[in-house]
Write a structure and sequence with these properties.
The structure is a single chain. The protein is α/β, with parallel strands linked by helices. It contains four helices and six strands. Strands 2-3-4-5-1-6 form a six-stranded mixed β-sheet, sandwiched between helices.
Length: 138
Amino acid sequence: MSIILLSGQPNTGKTTTINLVYDELIRQGALVKKKKKQLGNNKMDFECVLEYQNKIIAIYSMGDDHRLCERAVKTYRNCNFLILAYSAKKTSQCKLYNATAKDTMNLIINKTVDNTDEAKMEKANKKDSTTILSSIIK
């Protein structure tokens, strides 16, 4: 499995970006293998499994609890890809972040942030979603 870790500080658009990835995969014809299930208190956080171009892609957007992220890695280990939001609080001390960084099959994307206005934040989210999609769609 390849892990695509979208790493960033809290409230920088990680979940919004991952929702953009989900929406684009569905738009391009991905099949839902496990429907979107809301996670936690944020109505935008979710997990799901899609099939796209014969690849199984798990998505897990609730990245604030690193233990739950580690559980997601175990749960979805048989997928081709796991797209995972990951809160960057103390990432250097976190086993999952460090293990992901060491494996060349994985990709860490540092969340682009431009909070100067809503349009720039939307553009940053779109840029990051395009980076994630391009690592899956080859």
